[in-house]
Amino acid sequence: MKPRIPSIGKAIQMALQLDLFSDFLVPDKLRPVPAKTPVPAASPLKDIVLRDEQRPAAPPSPIPPPSAPPPSTFVNTSNKRRILIQDYLLEYDLQRSKRRSIGFLINEDGLRITAPRWVTIADIETAIHEKQAWILRKLTERRERTQRQLEPTMHWQDGAKLLYLGGEITLRIAPASVSGTHFQSEQAELIINLPADAGEQQLKDRVQAWLQQEAKRVFNERLPVFAEKLNVRYQSMALSAAATRWGSCTSQGKIRLNWRLIHFSPMIIDYVIAHELAHLREMNHSPRFWATVQSVFPDFEVARNTLRQHASADLPVF
């Protein structure tokens, strides 16, 4: 992340970026911004922060403790603790710190909870039960991503399959003295003409160049559609190759879209475009922003959840 910008005026000029795994930017139900209700300072669960290591933490939200916390089922072994939730024996690592909130982090080792020293085990148990749905879902996603990474990677050869606009196309290598690329839409085949002595990297470079060209074409076709719906104007569009972001938008209307979106369906592409253009009306991720996205893309949550399930490991390596 870039260093914080001290001036509020400059901060507004920053690009608001769509994270690859920004799971907690969308409220459960879109509604007008509610009036802030002060939380008693004595509440031990003043803030609970949930994080997946592949994205920044979402802003903490006040969570009142239930009237009767569930009974303790911890087994203490060093920093490792266990608790039974939904017939599942959950093991996690508990770290004490000087922070003021309870933080949840899902990484390759599982669940790690960081809590202030003054927060009791009973309060931590309550927080776990409050967020059990998120915890179990993120652990499942982590296992699935790990499993996909263990699967065989793409083999760059004639007949290889490649994701394009949500479907699969087949690579066909045709020996030729002059290089060329041609897509046959009816057969869903990408014909790559290469010299007989061409290596694998030359094939990758040709395929990547074609995909980036297609990305630019599709993005430039869809951006004006949603700009008109939102009644906004953008200044420019450029391709991005960011590892953890699908798009970004500045207050000056400069849009950057990850060319890797060309692997996904038009629905996913439209969602990211609508998301970034909506920032030209709401430079934040408030409920009002998500209402703006929904006004032009009603099924944005479906598209967002679909995109969230795909990790960079699912895509071919160039």
Any key phrases for this structure?
single chain, 4-stranded mixed β-sheet, disordered N terminus, globular, 318 residues, alpha/beta, 5-stranded mixed β-sheet, 13 strands
Order of strands, main sheet, comes to 2-5-6-4-3
Largest sheet: 5 strands, mixed
In percent, how helical is the residue content?
A: 25-40%
Number of helices: 7
Assembly type = single chain
Q: What is the residue-averaged pLDDT?
A: 77
Rg estimate, integer Å: 23 Å
Strand content: 15-25%
Number of β-strand runs: 13
Which class do the helix and strand fractions yield? alpha/beta
- Terminal Cα separation, in Å? 25 Å
Low-confidence stretches: 1-46, 55-78
Order of helices and strands: HEEEEEEHHEEEEHEEEHHH
Which geometry do the CA atoms define?
A: globular
Task: Give an overview in words.
With 318 residues, this protein is of the alpha/beta class. It is built from seven helices and 13 strands. It has helices at 8-12, 121-130, 132-150, 200-230, 266-278, 287-296, 300-308; strands spanning 16-19, 48-52, 80-85, 88-97, 102-107, 110-116, 161-164, 167-175, 180-184, 189-194, 236-240, 245-249, 254-258. Strand 7 and strand 8 form a beta hairpin. The radius of gyration is 23 Å and the shape is globular. The model is unreliable at 1-46 and 55-78 (pLDDT under 50).
